[in-house]
Amino acid sequence: MTDSLTLRRPDDWHLHLRDGAMLAGVLPETARHFARAIIMPNLVPPVVTGAQAATYRDRILAALPEGAAFTPLMTLYLTEDTDPDDVAAAAASGLVTAVKLYPAGATTNSASGVRDFDKVRGVLEKMAEIGLPLCVHGEVTSPEVDIFDREAVFIDTVLDPIRRATPGLRVVMEHITTANGVDYVKAGNDDLGGTITTHHLVINRNHILVGGIKPHYYCLPVAKREEHRLALRAAAMSGTSRFFLGTDSAPHIDALKENACGCAGCFTATNTMSILAEVFEQDGKLANLEAFTSLNGPAFYRLPANEATITLRRGDAVSYPDKITTGAGPVTVFNPGFELHWSVQ
Ligand SMILES: NC(=O)N[C@@H](CC(=O)O)C(=O)O
Ligand SMILES: [Zn+2]
Ligand SMILES: [Zn+2]
């Protein structure tokens, strides 16, 4: 049995760092293992302009622990008022790596997102022209669509029409949770990629609901049936270049998770690499872990893979704290519900 595994340093292609005391508390958890991350712009207020992205990047860099080698890759939050020229300038200067599309009301802090997709046509066309990727939270928000169907309906009614209408637009379907998402990404061309979270490889909807409601397993898009989890595992472990890691590590303080109206988001930054090594090993796919965490994402974003490496070692069970403390309050670390044996050296 393999007990040591050296990989190029991983990147996280979908990460929430928040701001202020929460940023200071969670950033070290990611910077410990990851070289780069795509930073989500759903702050309050959202990161909409190039100028806002520049000051947010400065706050992230200022919060980095001494000596940490971590590069935040910034994104802009797409609104119906986004100026195509501001986006193009922010991309040309190297400040932003992608633009983020939230359908209005789909998830945490998405109220400023898009309602009428015709209003962002000019921005999407500019992005297609300059090759700037669009990261998509792929769920419809119509009240009549069942929450478990919202991703599949989004693909057919929003995403596919946008891609057909905007040839050359590069799209990352983020945090895919269904076999439909897997199939759609597989069937696409090289302008389409899909990120998969750590937690969606581990939990299905039973984990959230059976035996009592588990708020720390609630995230959006919500975990689906077991057959979907298995499709995600197969995709993540296939080595196929279209699929790469985006943890969607999304910290909320416990008081807002363990609440009558609990926030969506799982916090996985602390133990993601251990969990991934364990699940890839469970399925006999450790050889494809590096492609998923360290190679496929840079290839899609047309960035070099990291030169530095990390080494994972298998040993006796490793444990992680149940919570991390932040200046904003305690944040519960995702519990995969099985023993972990791999740790990053
Ligand atoms: N994934 C989540 O459940 N929550 C994210 C938002 C998002 O990525 O949709 C958050 O910002 O908390
Ligand atoms: Zn999302
Ligand atoms: Zn997210």
Give an account of the 3D structure.
With 345 residues, the protein is α/β, with parallel strands linked by helices. It has a single domain (4-344), classed as TIM Barrel. Helix content is 33%, strand content 19%. The chain has helices spanning 20-31, 50-63, 84-92, 121-130, 150-165, 179-187, 205-209, 226-237, 254-257, 272-282, 289-301; strands spanning 4-8, 11-15, 36-39, 71-77, 96-101, 134-136, 171-173, 192-196, 243-245, 309-318, 323-326, 329-332, 340-344. The strands form three sheets. An eight-stranded parallel beta sheet has the order 2-3-4-5-6-7-8-9, with helices on both faces. Helix 4 links the parallel strand 5 (96-101) and strand 6. Helix 3 (84-92) packs parallel to helix 4. The protein is globular. It starts with a strand and ends with a strand. The mean pLDDT is 97. It binds N-carbamoyl-L-aspartate (NCD) and zinc ion (2 copies). The site of N-carbamoyl-L-aspartate has 11 residues, from loops.
